[in-house]
Amino acid sequence: MAEHQHGTMDTTVQEKTYSGFLTFVTRFSIALVIFAIFLAVFAS
After folding, report:
1. DSSP assignments along 2-44, one per residue
2. At 22, phi and psi to the nearest 5?
3. What's the gap between Cα 5 and its chain centre?
4. Which residues cross the membrane (predicted)?
5. pLDDT digits (tens, 9 = 90+) for 1-44
6. Left, alpha or beta for 5 (phi > 0: left; psi -120 to 50: alpha)?
Protein backbone atom coordinates (compact mmCIF):
# COMPACT_ATOMS: atom_id res chain seq x y z
CA MET A 1 0.00 0.00 0.00
CA ALA A 2 1.36 3.43 -0.94
CA GLU A 3 2.12 5.98 1.71
CA HIS A 4 -0.11 9.04 1.69
CA GLN A 5 1.68 12.35 1.26
CA HIS A 6 -0.20 15.27 2.73
CA GLY A 7 -1.04 18.02 0.22
CA THR A 8 -0.61 15.99 -2.98
CA MET A 9 -4.28 15.39 -3.82
CA ASP A 10 -5.67 17.19 -6.88
CA THR A 11 -8.66 19.20 -5.62
CA THR A 12 -9.58 21.17 -8.75
CA VAL A 13 -12.86 19.27 -9.22
CA GLN A 14 -13.87 19.88 -5.60
CA GLU A 15 -13.00 23.56 -5.91
CA LYS A 16 -15.10 23.94 -9.07
CA THR A 17 -18.02 22.14 -7.40
CA TYR A 18 -17.82 24.36 -4.32
CA SER A 19 -17.59 27.49 -6.46
CA GLY A 20 -20.66 26.41 -8.43
CA PHE A 21 -22.52 25.67 -5.20
CA LEU A 22 -21.73 29.12 -3.80
CA THR A 23 -22.84 30.76 -7.05
CA PHE A 24 -26.12 28.81 -6.96
CA VAL A 25 -26.82 29.65 -3.31
CA THR A 26 -26.04 33.34 -3.86
CA ARG A 27 -28.29 33.64 -6.91
CA PHE A 28 -31.09 31.64 -5.28
CA SER A 29 -30.94 33.82 -2.16
CA ILE A 30 -31.12 36.99 -4.24
CA ALA A 31 -34.09 35.56 -6.18
CA LEU A 32 -35.88 34.75 -2.92
CA VAL A 33 -35.35 38.27 -1.59
CA ILE A 34 -36.66 39.77 -4.83
CA PHE A 35 -39.66 37.43 -4.72
CA ALA A 36 -40.39 38.38 -1.10
CA ILE A 37 -40.22 42.07 -1.98
CA PHE A 38 -42.52 41.45 -4.96
CA LEU A 39 -45.05 39.73 -2.69
CA ALA A 40 -44.83 42.49 -0.11
CA VAL A 41 -45.51 45.16 -2.73
CA PHE A 42 -48.18 43.51 -4.89
CA ALA A 43 -49.93 40.92 -2.69
CA SER A 44 -52.84 42.32 -0.77
Report:
1. PPP-TT-S--HHHHHHHHHHHHHHHHHHHHHHHHHHHHHHH--
2. -65, -40
3. 29
4. 20-43
5. 678 888 888 889 999 999 999 999 999 999 999 999 999 999 86
6. beta
